[in-house]
Design a protein that fits this description.
Layout lengths: L21 E6 L7 H5 L3 E6 L2 H4 L7 H15 L3 E5 L27 H6 L1 H15 L4 E5 L5 H20 L8 E7 L2 H4 L3 H6 L2 E4 L1 H8 L18 H17 L2 E4 L7 H9 L4 E4 L1 H11 L4 H13 L6 H11 L1
Parallel strand pairs: 1-2, 1-8, 2-3, 3-4, 4-5, 5-6, 6-7
Helix pairs in contact: 3-5, 5-6, 11-12, 11-13, 13-14
The structure holds phosphoenolpyruvate and magnesium ion.
Magnesium ion binds next to α9.
Organism: Thalassovita litoralis
Subcellular location: Cytoplasm
Family: Belongs to the PEP-utilizing enzyme family.
């Protein structure tokens, strides 16, 4: 499939109306890194760091993590890599941590909540990341941030880690970006100050959608019940785009939906200029975007919304069939 899109691999995802959408890839293993070149991705928009913690029967050492992160940065050849700090809990349980008996793990003690309550692992990971960067640019993203305070506390941990490294005589990153994943509807309504402070936001659509519609992403019975192109969800996303534009905050979308061409087209029409997806999706999404006029698609979406449709998908599909 990768071959089919080889001719546009080096081309930008530029629409017919002249807008460029940056396409990044999701990764989680060293073995994913060669896809940076083969897919034509501009960077790694989401590096999930759970796997290294999940595949062993004991906590990985800082030196091991640091060596791995350094190899990831080496292999990325200067392209931006967004490292997401440990996102455990819910569906991802560490074999060597005491299992938590929780009635609703997806709404439970997970991700940044664990990181802030038991900061040992997060501190170790932040230190490993700073050492791996060794003076190179570094980008870190905190998962599942539900309110401004959590971002502030996580950033304070990062500041402390930097200070410690400085005192120990280690190089600190040349540039540092600290972002948050927007995976709970609450963060969309965080104070302006949060939007001004955060370096970037990335929408974790898999989680955001499950909380927006209250439909478990693991439950086959309900997980496909609500369309991503549901008018309510698109309107919600549109408001996030507006807030980010107003505060000049870089915004991306890194859930699975970003890799689906029709969904990606609609996100671009709603104003998204950065998407992160599995490497195999870069070609098909780019192919779609390069045949699109976003203003026309936007008008199609607006009209479907005005006409009171539940999902804009039928109208969008009609338009795409006739226009591309
Ligand atoms: C998401 O929630 O959309 C996301 C990218 O993170 P994960 O799938 O790892 O929860
Ligand atoms: Mg998530």
């Amino acid at each position: 499939a990768q071959e089919r899109y080889a001719s546009i691999r080096q081309e930008p995802a530029q629409t017919l109306c002249g807008k460029t959408v940056a396409l990044h890839m999701n990764a989680g293993l060293m073995a994913d890194l060669p896809s940076l070149d083969s897919s034509g991705a501009e960077g790694v928009g989401l590096f999930r760091t759970e796997l290294q913690f999940l595949v062993r029967n004991q906590m990985p050492r800082r030196s091991e993590l640091s060596a791995l992160y350094a190899r990831v940065l080496d292999a990325s050849n200067g392209k931006r890599v967004v490292f997401r700090t440990l996102d455990i809990g819910s569906d991802k349980v560490l074999p060597y941590m005491k299992p938590q008996e929780e009635p609703n793990p997806a709404l439970g003690w997970r991700a940044i909540r664990v990181g802030l309550d038991k900061p040992g692992v997060m501190r170790m990971q932040l230190q490993a990341l700073i050492r791996a960067a060794g003076g190179r640019p570094l980008t870190i993203m905190f998962p599942f941030v539900a309110q401004y305070e959590e971002y502030k506390a996580a950033k304070a941990e990062m500041d402390k880690a930097l200070e410690r490294e400085r005192i120990l005589g280690h190089a600190t990153p040349e540039t540092l970006e600290i972002g948050a994943m927007l995976e709970t509807p609450s963060l969309a309504f965080a104070p302006d100050r949060f939007y001004e402070e955060v370096d970037f936001l990335s929408i974790g659509g898999n989680d955001l959608k499950q909380f927006f519609f209250a439909a478990d992403r693991e439950n086959e019975r309900v997980r496909r019940r609500y369309d991503t192109l549901n008018v309510s969800f698109l309107t919600f996303l549109e408001n996030i785009v507006k807030r980010c534009d107003a505060s000049n905050t870089s915004l991306s979308f890194c859930g699975e939906d970003a890799g689906r061409p029709v969904e990606a087209a609609c996100f671009a029409a709603m104003g998204f200029r950065m998407l992160s997806m599995r490497p195999a999706s870069i070609g098909p999404v780019k192919h779609m975007l390069r045949r699109l006029n976003l203003e026309e698609l936007r008008a199609v979406i607006e009209q479907a919304r005005e006409e009171g449709h539940q999902s804009v998908r039928p109208a969008v599909m009609d338009y795409l069939r006739s226009a591309t």
